[in-house]
Design goal:
- The protein is an alpha/beta fold.
- The protein has two domains: about 300 residues, TIM Barrel; about 130 residues, Galactose-binding domain-like (Jelly Rolls), CATH 2.60.120.
- It contains 13 helices and 19 strands.
- The strands form four sheets. It has a five-stranded parallel β-sheet with strand order 1-2-3-4-5. A five-stranded antiparallel β-sheet has the order 10-13-18-15-16, with no helix packed on it. A five-stranded antiparallel β-sheet has the order 11-12-19-14-17, with no helix packed on it.
- Helix 9 links the parallel strand 6 and strand 7.
- The longest helix is centred in the middle third of the chain and has 18 residues.
- The radius of gyration is 25 Å and the shape is elongated.
- GO terms for molecular function: hydrolase activity, hydrolyzing O-glycosyl compounds.
- Belongs to the glycosyl hydrolase 5 (cellulase A) family.
- InterPro entries: Galactose-bd-like_sf, GH, Glyco_hydro_5.
Amino acid sequence: MTRHGRRAAVLASSLLLSVFAQTGVASAAAKRPAPAPAATKKPAAKPPAKPATKPVVKPTPSKAAGPVKEAAPTLANRLAAVRTAKTINYYPSNAGWSAMWTHFDAVKIEADLTKAAALGADTVRVIVFPTAFGYPTPKADYATKLSKFVSIADGEGLSVKLTLFDWWAGYSDAAGSAAWAKAVLAPYANDPRVLSAELQNEFDPTDADAVAWIRKLIPGVRAAVPTMPLTLSVSGTTGQAGLTRIRTALAGTPLDYLDFHFYGNSERALAEIRKAQAAAAPYPIVIGETGLSTATGSEGEQAAYLARVFEAAKVAGIGSVAPWTLSDFSTGAIPANSAVSKIPAQYKFGLYRADGSAKPAAAVVKTYWTGQAITSASVLDLGFEAAAGNSPWRPYLAEDGAAVRARDAARTGTWSVKFSGTNRSDTGLPSVRTAPVTPVQPGQKWHAEAWAKGQNVTGTSEIALSWFDAGDKWLGQASSKPVPAGTSGWTRLTVDTTAPAGAASVQLHLKSGDNKGAVWFDDVTLS
């Protein structure tokens, strides 16, 4: 059985699909240029076999069997696949946004999607721009490009999610918009390679013209592709309020699910996701974009960010979380006529660098998508052995004494983290901090430990767990015993405590203040 057939059979058994005579799938239609992840989404700033998500069945025929039979897509099985899709957001590293389509490179795309499939992805999301594809009638050559993209993705075992109307403000032409959308989507109405249609990227539900436009658009698209799930996404800035507004405004013209783009604080991801679920109910939600730019944070922070979001989504019961994006963008890759091209952070959200090398985040995504456990120990650099720039530890009150990665003392391995000659301020002791991968819930028991060694130590050096609520209000902390004054060998510092009422996140701080000597920390545990 082919890889495609294996994937199809798995989904068929999971969804109990009916089998119908093969009718010849409509040829794939016009592709559209993928939209830019708006600045709002990012605060300004194979394995050989892939799990199936496509609603398609291709059983191996027996000798007596007639033609191979294929299940007809239904709204229910497509939506079920959407809700568990392992989706990667995609533009080529050298041709972002509309340039993906105006400079279409099938060889580059195939190589990239091979890489995505090797991470465990089973779906790819691309955005189609009316301005590039031709409006209100899609150009034939762009329709061919989209068809080719769908075929390339299918060859790599990936379904496709289509997003329409990015970089769009033509809300006065609902009829033309409907005609264009139907022309793009109709060839895929019963094509199991395409899972869903997002009618606009990061829709603004506070725009009355946009709301009037989408109310007219939905019925026409629904009639053209009745078994294709329809959705809208909201930006990270619009957030939960946007989901509520969409649900309310479109009560008479309902969608099938809502798409939440999450770029908030990953330490409080569970609380934020649960707010989004409540705001969207009764619609199910997926997290259609999430990530952290390594232009504003370290590569280690990016990996930890995605690990926290994946784990929070799992606890919240959300089965589809889509990283933004596969690769960083090279200089000039984002069209200059887009405001996105002027935002440095937009170039560095990739799981891979622009030269094709993997960042630590790629390993986190593969771990999650291939069903393995993501742990704090595997992501948080708890022994300080990560290469420079790859650690998720962040400074706090560094102006009063910055910690440095040191190799003059280490309990195990080669490196530790060292404070020396520190001060203190009214707001606390200088420290380095990180947060667990496991989401925080009130009443949970937590354990932290670290080994510390001192030389001529004065002041206070300790470890502490600091608690915060969903609004980032500090709720208190639990601290270890301090490192002994003077000079001492490696001493184990521990904290055992329970998350207080209202806790949504916790940070582990390694602290040293008013210290005229030096203190080293190593071999941290957080569970």
